[in-house]
Amino acid sequence: MRMYDLILKKKEGAALSKEEIQWMINAFTTGEIPDYQMSAMLMAICFQGMNHDETLALTLAMRDSGDVLDLSGIKGVKVDKHSTGGVGDKTSLILTPIIAALGVPVAKMSGRGLGHTGGTIDKLECFEGFSTSISEEAFLKQVSEVGVAIAGQTANLAPADKKLYALRDVTATVAEKSLIASSIMSKKLASGSDAIVLDVKTGNGAFMQTVEKAEELARIMVAIGNSAGKKTYAVITDMSQPLGNTVGNIVEVQEAIEALNGKGPKDLMDVVYALGYLMLKAAGVAEDENEARTRMEKVIASGKALDKFADFVEAQGGRKEQVYHPQLLAKAAITETITAPEDGYVEALNAMAIGTACMSLGGGRETKESQIDLTAGIRLKKKIGDSVKKGECLAELYGNDAAKCNDAKELVQNAFLFSKEPLDAPETVLKYITA
Fold first, then answer.
1. 187 given a catalytic annotation
2. What pLDDT digit, counting tens, does each position of 102-146 carry?
């Protein structure tokens, strides 16, 4: 085969065969195909698209480019969860101990954040001593004994995707649905779980700005997962404002602990319960949404979910007492308050602006080399639909650099829009995709 011929074929709108895609991914991973030819192919895909068979073949080829974890030694149905990313999304910290406490094992590979806040790995490292660099043997042993383990992605997990994504990032070829879907699903399939639940965000703080585009991406990924033999579900959730009341790393960990103590905000818990329902459904533990929610609420009320989280943190080297006493987590030196300029109601709260403000405080990464300030963050006191009085606190900012705090204050202030008329808070869970 010649890469030139495959580029020409895709440029003219023809579908690539499974064998052609496998050859292309293998040759690119080993360095036989140069970056400039793969860049041309990626651009051709952006213009011509890929059908289901092509997208599935691309996903499986990337999955098979490296290690595929074998979780068969762990009893029960292993369910993984993935979010397409949003502002204030700390659901994994809350959801995984709840599901594990209900007897469903969770073996999760997570990454670090690049953007407005840290990823799940960064948030877990807020606990002193916590490590996600654990061996595969220790990872499997912990899932069997504790019920949950979260590790950093290994260097050899879907290496073709890492190499492809680096190229997409600098050639303006990131935002193509088949490329997005295959990137996400290749890593999920390589992680070895029996079932996958996807949280696909939509709104101004999400990659997919409209519900229609989010649903299209969700259906592509669900079809890939099911075709690959994994029971796969998705839920479309709103990201027109930050999820929950915190954006940052330590502040999000503290809010997750509050949620496990039964004090989570409604919008955040609605997403947790929706994802939890699909995870329990995929595991064959609950078919009915009301039954699933009741079981999750009970495991929170009993304290078992919080205890499971503490055991998980301790198993990976973290300080267990920081789970039960989150005030022991590190604190920022500076606190700034944003106040309402007028009476009225919060009409809009720009999620991306809040995310940008958090990053400007030091709570996120602009490049892979950036160092995160885990104490930097934002705590929202008002959200869409809430009434406000002039001078009332809208948000608190936490940081360690006065200049950065001043820049963030302006961003947060401008993220709020007000109305004289009352309005309802937006629904957070928009749609389930189960087939």
1. yes
2. 999 998 887 766 556 668 888 999 999 999 888 888 999 999 999
Q: Kindly give, in sequence order, each residue whose CB lies less than 8 Å from that of residue 424, ignoring residues fewer than 6 positions away.
A: 385
347 and 384 Cβ atoms separated by less than 8 Å: yes
The answer to whether residue 186 is catalytic is no
**In angstroms, what is the C-alpha Rg of the chain?**
22
C-alpha dihedral, 256 to 315 to 286 to 426, nearest 10°: 20
Q: Is 82 a catalytic residue?
A: yes
Residue 169 pLDDT: 83
**What is the pTM assigned to this prediction?**
0.93
The one catalytic residue in 187, 281, 379, 383 is 187
Confirm whether 2 is a catalytic residue. no
> How many helices, marked H, and strands, marked E, lie in the chain?
17, 13
Residue 406 sits at φ, ψ, to 5 deg, of -65, -40
- For the chain, the average pLDDT equals 93
Given the residues 90, 116, 168, 409, the one annotated as active site? 168
Is 67 designated active site?
A: no
* Choice among 83, 92, 110, 183 that is catalytic: 183
- Each residue's pLDDT tens digit, 150-183: 988 766 888 999 899 889 988 999 889 999 999 9
| Number of CB atoms found within 10 A of residue 144's CB | 16
Which of these is catalytic: 80, 89, 122, 161?
A: 161
Residues of the chain with pLDDT under 50: none
C-alpha distances out from residue 281 to 248, 284, 292, 390, 423, Å: 31, 5, 8, 47, 34
Pick left, alpha or beta for residue 66 (phi over 0 → left; psi -120 to 50 → alpha; otherwise beta).
beta
All domains in the chain, ordered by first residue: 3-49 (1.20.970.10), 79-325 (3.40.1030.10), 331-419 (3.90.1170.30)
